[in-house]
Design a protein that fits this description.
Elements lengths: L24 H21 L1 H30 L3 H24 L2 H25 L14 H27 L1 H6 L3 H9 L1 H33 L14 H5 L2 H15 L1
Helix pairs in contact: 1-2, 2-3, 2-8, 3-10, 4-5, 4-8, 4-10, 5-8, 7-8, 8-10
Length: about 260
């Protein structure tokens, strides 16, 4: 159902704003600091606190999902059955991501967050710097192929950084330095040129997944004619807006962890 405070009919192709978008840089900065601090504390302590945060975030994102679906139904004239399918799909999507993140080691949760952050950051700056052709302007006008290439580079660097820090964690910095030359470390940690190539391929998959999650939410919001999934986070929109790219990444990483176990 469309909220009563929303304006009247919207012209085809236009997006109805979620409300006054908070562009206050101070509010954005404060919100970002609070989010990072909460995530860092929960990741550091781990255990039930981290699990509770994951479930809470997934629950908030699903609340926003069903809210978007209701708008989509109002705009597109969905049947009740179709709306129910969307609701169940959202529960499965959020539920799968939350379950896999709760069951995977905390280190992999950090990796999923790291990959998504690197993809978003590198895609943003390479897209803004290089520009060029858009991937799907009707869905997300700001996304370019150059941005995707930057996202692949970001995901690859995140993976290499994760491999390096995991190796340090496993053997200790002193043992790693004392165990051989930098050339030896390169082959032990990264597997030489073949390992770097594999990391690049994995980075491409992770970057495409992160961008696909972003595109999917953008497509939903365009169909619902809203700009943000909600206004829960001052200056940043909603929770779903912040984790849309991480959801498919977390599902893939969690699924691979389950298989490996």
């Amino acid at each position: 159902m469309v909220d009563a405070e929303q304006p009247g009919p919207v012209e085809p192709g236009h997006v109805r704003p979620e409300g006054p978008r908070n562009t206050d840089l101070k509010a954005r900065a404060i919100s970002a600091v609070v989010m990072v601090a909460i995530a860092a504390i929960c990741l550091w302590i781990g255990g039930l606190l981290l699990d509770a945060l994951i479930v809470l975030v997934a629950g908030a994102a699903y609340w926003e999902w069903q809210r978007i679906v209701r708008r989509m139904a109002a705009e597109s004239g969905f049947s009740g059955a179709k709306s129910l399918v969307w609701m169940l799909a959202g529960a499965g999507y959020m539920g799968a991501a939350a379950f896999l993140m709760v069951t995977m080691p905390a280190m992999l949760v950090v990796f999923a967050i790291l990959v998504t952050a690197f993809v978003d950051t590198f895609a943003y700056f390479s897209g803004r710097t290089i520009g060029g052709p858009k991937i799907a302007p009707s869905i997300s006008p700001s996304k370019t192929w150059a941005g995707l290439a930057g996202g692949v580079l970001g995901a690859t660097l995140a993976l290499l950084l994760f491999m390096f820090t995991s190796h340090i964690w496993a053997v200790g910095m002193s043992d790693m330095i004392g165990g051989g030359t930098a050339h030896d470390t390169y082959f032990v940690v990264f597997g030489g040129p073949e390992g770097i190539a594999s990391a690049l391929a994995a980075g491409a998959v992770l970057a495409v997944l992160a961008q696909a999650g972003d595109f999917f939410e953008s497509w939903m919001k365009r169909r619902a004619k809203v700009k943000d999934s909600s206004t829960l986070i001052p200056g940043h929109g909603g929770v779903f807006d912040r984790i849309d790219g991480m959801l498919p990444v977390a599902i893939l990483i969690g699924a691979l962890a389950q298989v490996a176990a």
